[in-house]
Amino acid sequence: MSFFISMQNISKTFYGIKALNNVELELKYGEALCLAGQNGCGKSTLIKILSGVYQPDKGATIKIGASHYTQLTPQESIKKGIQVIYQDLSLFPNLTVAENIAIHSYQKLGWVNQKEVEEIATSAIDSIHADLPLDKEVGTLPIAQQQLVAICRALAQNAKLLIMDEPTASLTAKEVNDLLNVVNKLKSKGISIIFVSHKLNEVMKVSDSVLVLKDGNMIGKYPINEVDEKKLGFLMTGLNIQLSQLPPFNKADEPILEVKNLTKSGEYENVSFSLRKGEIISFIGLLGSGRTELCLSLFGQTKPDKGEMTLKGKAVQFKNNREAIQQGIAYVSEDRMNTGLMMNESIHHNIISTILGRISNKFNVIKDKVAYQHSQSLIDALKIKVSDSDLPVNTLSGGNAQRVSIAKWLSIRPDIIILDSPTIGVDIANKEGIFNIIKSLAEEGISVIFVTDEVEEAFYHSHRIFIMKKGQIAHHICATQTTEQELMEKVYEHHA
């Protein structure tokens, strides 16, 4: 079978640094290719060259169908049927499903033929056997349905290649399976797929082949039946990552935190648990199970309707998160880009943002020397890869940005740190690095609560596991007293 796309000698240099070095990409009609590699390996650069956003260095050849190019413009790329669905989906929340799908098929000036818009949208929806409400505003839909709207919009533009960037990051297990089924339907229609994901189990399910990049170089392209998750992880990182469970937590100290029957109507109900000094506990459950809502109340961001919290032996009721911070509780947000970090501000300013009072003189002027010593000590301790701490956070990879989030809260010297989905958008090597940080914090006596929807993370990286369903704790398990398979069955029971 002939290749739909063939890219040869693809290099890209930024300010003298090679982001890509003689990479090749070949893709058949109806083939699903996973683009795999750590953050910063060149995946995004390659996608932007294929979609015409970046122009490659001289010597590149790109063949799409029967057409030959040395570089593409966005218009040429779209005309050839290449569509990119980014993580933010780029939908119009105030327009209907039908209007979003057919947005490129009608002129905004003058009047819109609503019947034609609905016909275009219905045709795209029917082609993947989806169930979408044509007249609903997209902003009111759950993220899984928004994903389908983005796919249908691409199909309405006669997509021959769909590039999907981390499409499952915010989906439940069932929604992931539904999306993977849609991908298989697209393949059966001859539509090619490039799939970017850090979740290797999904890569194995949906891909026909995998192209591995490392430091801008092509490691190789492999049929998916020739690799497993372990081999793929090694190809991406050069590391043989061996997972082992934490030893049982046997300290008999009094709990640093006790929660009894904590309830917030419509979010979580009758939640009770304890946490000891240096212990790591995880809350796992599907999206909507109440995990984040519970953590926000522990941090004083929201107020429970009833229940009790005891911190270091004293009853507490936080009016706001400032009171929680003063009592030694830190919270690393799930959404680092919007609520966790100031992305346009420097790494240094983000790290010191929680302790400005402590590093300022009596005139409220920051003591620069003390401030920079502090931020640099955390950069060193957390192994944040950065050449200059005055660079903005948005210049960092996902893994390094997450380390800055953690550094910012370690500045307050917390007794308890809550990490909400700390590895979202983080590659396999940085995931391991973040959990090594969590382990070292616990060894220093800091108590850790982390939220995850990945069974493997809870199983290998926490002492005790709390499974939440519909706002309640359904199971409380010591990690060493179960198996990964048993844990998975408990998490996903009744959600098949």
UniProtKB/TrEMBL annotation:
<dbReference type="InterPro" id="IPR003593">
    <property type="entry name" value="AAA+_ATPase"/>
</dbReference>
<dbReference type="InterPro" id="IPR017871">
    <property type="entry name" value="ABC_transporter-like_CS"/>
</dbReference>
<feature type="domain" description="ABC transporter">
    <location>
        <begin position="241"/>
        <end position="495"/>
    </location>
</feature>
<keyword id="KW-1003">Cell membrane</keyword>
<dbReference type="InterPro" id="IPR003439">
    <property type="entry name" value="ABC_transporter-like_ATP-bd"/>
</dbReference>
<feature type="domain" description="ABC transporter">
    <location>
        <begin position="5"/>
        <end position="240"/>
    </location>
</feature>
<keyword id="KW-0472">Membrane</keyword>
<keyword id="KW-0067">ATP-binding</keyword>
<keyword id="KW-0762">Sugar transport</keyword>
<keyword id="KW-0677">Repeat</keyword>
<keyword id="KW-1278">Translocase</keyword>
<dbReference type="InterPro" id="IPR050107">
    <property type="entry name" value="ABC_carbohydrate_import_ATPase"/>
</dbReference>
<protein>
    <submittedName>
        <fullName>Lipase</fullName>
    </submittedName>
</protein>
<keyword id="KW-0813">Transport</keyword>
<dbReference type="GO" id="GO:0016887">
    <property type="term" value="F:ATP hydrolysis activity"/>
</dbReference>
<dbReference type="GO" id="GO:0005524">
    <property type="term" value="F:ATP binding"/>
</dbReference>
<keyword id="KW-0547">Nucleotide-binding</keyword>
<dbReference type="InterPro" id="IPR027417">
    <property type="entry name" value="P-loop_NTPase"/>
</dbReference>
<dbReference type="Pfam" id="PF00005">
    <property type="entry name" value="ABC_tran"/>
</dbReference>
